[in-house]
Amino acid sequence: FMQEVLGTNIAVENHPGGNNAVGTTLVAQAEPDGYTLLTIGSPHLHFSYLTQETEYDLDDLVPIAGVVMEPGIVRVADDAPWENMNDLIDYAKEQPPGTLNASVSNIASGNFLGLKQIEEETGVEFNIVGFGGGQEARTALLQGEVDLTQAGVFNSLNIEEGSRVIGIQQETNEYKDLTDNAEPINDQLGTNIPHNSSTYGIWTTAAV
Question: Which of 32, 39, 112, 176 reaches 20 to 30 Å from 69, CA-CA?
Fold first, then answer.
C-alpha cells in the first residue's frame, strides 16, 4: 500500500534475532536520510531494549505512523480438551507447575507479558517458550509442540484452520467473528487481568 501511495519501490527486509534488536540496530545505525524505516510492535521494542544490552537507546528512534492495534488472545488446537479459559486454568491448577507449554513470538513481546499477567492473576504457571517470531510460535501449536499460544487477533488468522480462540485479553470482544465468539478472559474467570495488546507501527531515527 505504501508503494502505491509513494509511487516508489520499498524493499522489505526481515532481520530476525536478538529479540528484535538485530533489525532495530540496523535502522538505528542507518544513514539518517529517511530511506530506512523500521516496522515493529510496542511493547516489543521497549522490552527488547530493557532486557538486554543494545547498541542504541530508545531516544535514537521515533514513531512516525501507527498501523494497527492488535488485541491479545489465547488459542488452542481444535482437539484440545478445553472449551474456555475456565477449563484451561482449572486443568493447569491440577498439574505440576510448568506442565502446559505455551508459545509466544519471543520473550521480549506483548505476548509474553499477556501470559505472565494471566499467571500472576490466576496462580498458574505455564512453561512459556519463546520462538524466533510469531509464525514459528503459531506453527508450534498446530504441530502439537505446545498446548496453547498467546498471539494477536489478526496475526494468528493464518492458523484459524486447526485452532480456536478461547479467550481475548480485552474488556470487550470487538472481533467476535474473528475469534470464535470468545468471551473476554476477565468475564470468564472473574479476574482483573490488565488488557493486553501490541501496537504495530513505523519508526525511523530521531536524526531523520
Answer: 32
Q: What's the pTM value of the predicted model, to 2 decimals? A: 0.84
User: What would the pLDDT profile of 34-87 be if each residue is shown by its tens digit?
Assistant: 999 999 988 889 988 998 999 999 999 999 999 999 999 999 999 999 999 999
- Tracing cell 498458574 back to the chain, one arrives at 124
**Dihedral sign (CA 44, 174, 64, 11):** positive
CA distance 18 to 21: 5
Contact 152, 70 (CB under 8 A): yes
Say how far apart CA 58 and CA 80 lie, in whole Å.
41
CB 45 within 8 A of CB 61: yes
